[in-house]
Amino acid sequence: MKHSKLWKVGSDRRYGCSLTILFSGIVLAGLVGCNSQNQSAEEAAKLDSAAHCVAKGMPSRSAAVRQAASVTASGENGTDDMVLIPGGSFQMGSDEFPDSRPLHTVKVNGFWMDKHEVTNAEFARFVEATKYVTVAERPLNPKDYPGVPADKLVPGSAVFTPPNQQVSLENPLVWWQYVAGASWKHPAGPQSDLKGRENQPVVHVCYEDAAAYAKWAGKRLPTEAEWEFAAQGGKGNRKYYWGEELKPAGKWVANIYQGNFPNQNTTEDGFAGIAPVQTFPANPYGLYDMDGNVWEWCQDLYRPDYYRNSPKENPKGPADSYDPDEPGAVKYVQRGGSFLCSDQYCIRYKAGSRGKGEVSSGSDNLGFRCVRDQK
């Protein structure tokens, strides 16, 4: 069968970080990246104009928006397992990344933020209460993919699958696979489940899934400014959110990748994949995993030029989305990096850097946390 391209990706193979995920004879497109093979971290940062460190395992489906809108709030308004983040001013952005420039002063009001990423156990309570079905669990509409047999359009999501040998970082298809049946409750594929993973961050959730959960919980997703203010922990703009050294006192303080990416993870930090929440030290505000573990959705639409003219107080993102790599895609900001980030491959775990994802994209290194307005 002739392959049909389901999602148009950027043509810049080296730094656009495009990924095409092949499964069951069809093409599912995704974006991963920040590849910097044979480059220093500084060179990678300069050349990295459109980093994508999360695989996009699902094409866009408007049903996600419809179901998210139908979720009703649970009526809960408590702040258990949340931290009050005081309002204030800070320097937002990073000079290392083109879409994080310029460094600029921003003021945010105080807000409550989840201590940790939403866990599988917490998301399960939401699904039980609402019967919500995530995007990764829904069939693809054959009308959206003319020429592709309906039996090939199966629910699933993108799963990191490391090869057995060193490979070129030019081809992310080698380590990302579209796995039929992968979803939040089957994070590694249909043969996996949540036993022993209850306290890990929920993954394979797209923006609409995260927004639906937040609405049900009486919360919302954080703005990008709120997220960065919280991640800095009141310590100002530094190389890493935890400080200037990668390993303070010789210890790993975040769940990122060690070793040769993607085939030799030395697991120096104790984890080859996702770590349970609250495993690594909290920041000065008492927040866990603001760096590494899983990427986190923010409520802001993504534009690489937004910082040039963004509001000085409580910015909420641009009115529209634009990514020069995919001009027609609606994308939202993602923050924090994941367990797959390192200076060898994905450098967007550094402070002030930004990620981005198409509204219905999901993978096994992408989750979220919520906030609530201070009243």
From TrEMBL:
Transmembrane segments: none annotated. PROSITE patterns: PROKAR_LIPOPROTEIN. Pfam families: FGE-sulfatase. Residues 80-372 form the Sulfatase-modifying factor enzyme-like domain. Gene3D superfamilies: paralog of FGE (formylglycine-generating enzyme). SUPFAM superfamilies: C-type lectin-like (SSF56436). GO terms for molecular function: formylglycine-generating oxidase activity. InterPro entries: CTDL_fold (IPR016187), Sulfatase_Mod_Factor_Kinase (IPR051043), SUMF_dom (IPR005532), SUMF_sf (IPR042095). Residues 309-328 are annotated as: Disordered. Signal peptide: none annotated. PANTHER family: FORMYLGLYCINE-GENERATING ENZYME, SULFATASE MODIFYING FACTOR 1, 2. This is Formylglycine-generating enzyme family protein. It comes from Larkinella punicea.
